[in-house]
Amino acid sequence: MTALPEQLQSAVDTALRRFPQQELARAVTRLIIRYRQGEAATTPILVTPVDAAAYAGYRMPGTYAAVRSALTEIARQLPDFAPRSLIDVGGGTGTAVWAATDTWPSLGELTVVEQAPEVVALGRRLMAEAPRLRETVWQRGRIDPAAEAPRADVVTLSYVLGELPETTRAATVRWLAQSAGLLVLIEPGTPAGYERIVRARDELIGQERAVVAPCPHQRDCPIPPGQDWCHFSARLPRVGAHRVIKEGSLNFEDEKFSYVAVAGAGALGVEGSGGTGVVAGRAANRVLRHPVKRKGLVALRLCTGVDGLAEVTVTKRHGADYRAARDVEWGEEWAPSTPGHG
Ligand SMILES: C[S@@+](CC[C@H](N)C(=O)[O-])C[C@H]1O[C@@H](n2cnc3c(N)ncnc32)[C@H](O)[C@@H]1O
Q1: Rg of the chain over CA atoms, in angstroms?
Q2: In terms of pTM, does the model score above 0.90?
């Protein structure tokens, strides 16, 4: 389970207490309907202070869990990466900054670019609770591929691509990658979210960027279009105001997300950012579903580094690989000691 950091949870709870319950509930309902429509936003969705607070209460826990989970996998692939600077574009209330600094404590220069003033104001207030985040620079501004590209060791774009007009997405992605050491794009784990990620991935590979995660290869995504979608899941607790807002009886939920992380040529010490190059640290295989664990066997659905998609069964007679398979989770790398075991 990935909970919000304590300081953030308590700051969000304080922010929510400023508004009557009913007003918040109405704002959350409006946001749910708006995000389900899934259309690009021609005008900002988060306008008023209650919109910003409702967003923080309703979306920050799930978004934090998703971003933290994606970054954890990326960090596993890049054990020597110790980034110093981060720019979170379309950063909202700054969720990705919290998740990134929890993943890489080396991060010190932090910037959020966000268009909506009330969202910036709330994001700042939340970060005031965390000494390591207090110096974060909040730039009020719109994504503009004609402007200077964000230059940082890590650039994140989390749950934003879907709000951009389709015609501007490719240019935005190229712009984001231009001066980024590592670029991380995260979208909802829906067919539409995956579709945006896979298109962005194609665009970035065309720009000679090296895919770091989740893909174990640099080739076309092997998932048959329209039949399935590559996504992952992060479990988070529903606590306090979040549970009230969600009006659910469960005390946890699973946030589904799709993502891709790419490194620039020569960045991060990864090799071969060209089409067929090998990237040091890229996963051998990626687990694409909850493994099916039965007595004496584990069945894994994999995206493999060499041979597209595969279903493999690891049994007791595979010894150490079987014990490893019992622990492996959806979204993690599967790197058997014996290649025949997956
Ligand atoms: C769904 S929210 C995601 C916020 C944050 N990245 C997160 O993961 O929690 C989308 C954010 O992108 C911002 N956004 C959308 N289009 C933008 C643009 N053209 N320029 C700057 N920010 C934009 C919105 O104001 C909103 O805060």
Answers
A1: 20
A2: yes
